[in-house]
């Protein structure tokens, strides 16, 4: 901003015009500024979304029979497909209380503020200033007062598109931050669902082990009675005691695991573990049918892909900002003010002061610094492009992995169920034959251990199918419909 000294005054012309002497020069300057702005051009490269591999279908989905999304997702958010009201309540709390989500919300607000700051540079800035001075000195007892009031404006026309490139880059950064927020929400929701179902699986395992402990206690009682009657060896009693103690040890370990999962859920909800608890409840082993989408729609839905693409756009705009240094920078400034020895004199047009200015600057030699900055910006864009393409490839691999796991776990669950049913029958037969004195107790112990392992493996297979369904939903971006 340029202001004239307070001793420079224009008197007669101002009085004759009956108005401000700056009006006509300001009009000319405004016309020049408008011409410069309209004649401006962008020096950055035109942005195009980087190309990525787009297979026609997922390899692991060949032969897949997808469910129709109309009768699943349209009923509500993805976690509601598991039919657990307690999970629905917890996920709703994550939106409000999770600290990672809160940090992502704040980061998005910060990015939006940066957009506003960059856009403000496209418009003139106006300042108002005032001053009052009183001076005197020497043997002279007289003193003098001086008052000044002025208003000034400055503006840098965006002739080469540098400022607009900065604003566009900030806007792309804000869009990337919005995608980061969506990714943080999806991650917190998925982690909560995984921890919650792991906790419910622990409840199921605890119920199984508690029933097993009761069964082992009855077998120990039978064995002790047989030993007392002299028809069983003491080693049988010792084996029964060992087996019962081992089951109780597993019970204590599962209780510890459940407590840790409960603490993890509390942290996800933004609560201290001491202030949160989940009562034991039946486990809903629901595994929803996950309808598949085309790989191309995956690019529109995954928030991490969207964030990576927006960062490419932001890096592309930085090239324009760097290239603008090759061209002159222009700045327009003007001020109008009044000065006088009395406050009342400030209203007199004869005390008015004004100034107009147009400045231009151009670097003639900087030892290649501008070219280096442009090269650095182009390299930064190439880095962002590579990260974007890697994110897309990783997303495709993630979906393929979860599809393969979904298919395999379904087969494993059926086989685990058959194995568990067979092991239960063997356990019953061996216990009956032991009571009849037909087999040694070691065969009973072996059959019981095998049956317990088969039951626990079946529960684990059901839990794995649930967690894989959650992972598949997350890998698909949290839903089955493309972003509008």
UniProtKB/TrEMBL annotation:
Q: InterPro entries of this UniProt entry?
A: MdtP/NodT-like (IPR010131), OMP_efflux (IPR003423)
Chain ranges passing through the membrane: none
Q: What is its main location?
A: membrane
List where in the cell it is found: Cell membrane
Keyword Disulfide bond (UniProt):
no
Check the record and name the Gene3D superfamilies matching this protein: Outer membrane efflux proteins (OEP)
Which cellular component, as a GO term, is one annotated location? plasma membrane
Record's superkingdom? Bacteria
**Keywords for this entry?**
Lipoprotein, Membrane, Palmitate, Transmembrane, Transmembrane beta strand
What membrane topology does the UniProt entry give? Lipid-anchor
GO molecular function ontology, one term from the record:
efflux transmembrane transporter activity
Q: Which family does it belong to?
A: Belongs to the outer membrane factor (OMF) (TC 1.B.17) family.
Record's protein name: Efflux transporter, outer membrane factor (OMF) lipoprotein, NodT family
Q: What is the lineage of its organism?
A: Bacteria, Pseudomonadati, Pseudomonadota, Betaproteobacteria, Burkholderiales
């Amino acid at each position: 901003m340029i202001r004239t000294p307070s001793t420079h005054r224009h008197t007669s012309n101002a009085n004759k015009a009956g108005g401000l002497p700056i009006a006509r020069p300001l009009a000319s300057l405004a016309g020049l500024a408008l011409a410069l702005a309209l004649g401006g051009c962008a020096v950055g490269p035109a942005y195009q979304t980087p190309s990525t591999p787009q297979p026609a279908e997922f390899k692991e989905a060949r032969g897949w029979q997808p469910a129709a999304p109309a009768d699943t997702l349209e009923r509500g958010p993805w976690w509601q497909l598991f039919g657990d009201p307690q999970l629905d309540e917890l996920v709703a709390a994550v939106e409000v209380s999770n600290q990672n989500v809160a940090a992502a919300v704040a980061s998005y607000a910060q990015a939006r503020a940066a957009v506003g700051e960059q856009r403000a540079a496209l418009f003139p800035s106006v300042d108002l200033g005032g001053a009052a001075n009183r001076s005197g000195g020497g043997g002279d007892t007289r003193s003098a007062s001086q008052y000044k009031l002025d208003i000034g404006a400055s503006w840098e026309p965006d002739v080469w598109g540098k400022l607009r490139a900065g604003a566009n880059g900030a806007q792309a950064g804000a869009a990337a931050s919005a995608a980061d927020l969506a990714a943080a929400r999806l991650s917190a929701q998925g982690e909560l669902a995984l921890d919650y179902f792991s906790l419910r699986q622990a409840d199921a395992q605890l119920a199984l082990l508690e029933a097993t402990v009761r069964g082992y206690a009855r077998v120990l009682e039978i064995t002790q009675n047989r030993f007392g009657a002299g028809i069983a060896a003491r080693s049988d009693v010792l084996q029964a005691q060992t087996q019962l103690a081992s089951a109780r040890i597993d019970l204590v370990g599962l209780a510890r695991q459940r407590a840790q999962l409960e603490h993890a859920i509390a942290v996800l909800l933004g609560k201290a573990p001491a202030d949160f608890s989940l009562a034991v409840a039946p486990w809903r082993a629901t595994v929803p049918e996950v309808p598949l989408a085309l790989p191309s729609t995956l690019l529109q839905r995954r928030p991490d892909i969207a964030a990576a693409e927006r960062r490419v756009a932001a890096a592309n705009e930085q090239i324009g900002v760097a290239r603008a240094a090759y061209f002159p920078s222009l700045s327009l400034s003007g001020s109008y003010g009044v000065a006088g020895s009395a406050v009342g004199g400030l209203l007199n047009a004869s005390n008015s002061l004004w100034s107009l200015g147009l400045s231009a600057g151009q670097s003639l030699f900087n030892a290649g610094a501008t070219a280096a900055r442009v090269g650095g910006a182009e390299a930064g864009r190439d880095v962002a492009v590579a990260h974007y393409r890697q994110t897309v490839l990783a997303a495709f691999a993630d979906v393929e992995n979860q599809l393969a796991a979904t298919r395999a776990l379904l087969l494993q669950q059926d086989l685990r169920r058959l194995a568990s049913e067979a092991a239960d029958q063997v356990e019953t037969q061996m216990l009956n034959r032991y009571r009849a004195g037909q087999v040694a107790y070691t065969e009973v112990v072996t059959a019981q251990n095998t049956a317990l392992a088969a039951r626990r493996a079946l529960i684990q297979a059901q839990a794995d199918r649930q967690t894989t369904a959650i992972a598949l939903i997350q890998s698909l971006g949290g839903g089955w419909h493309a972003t509008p």
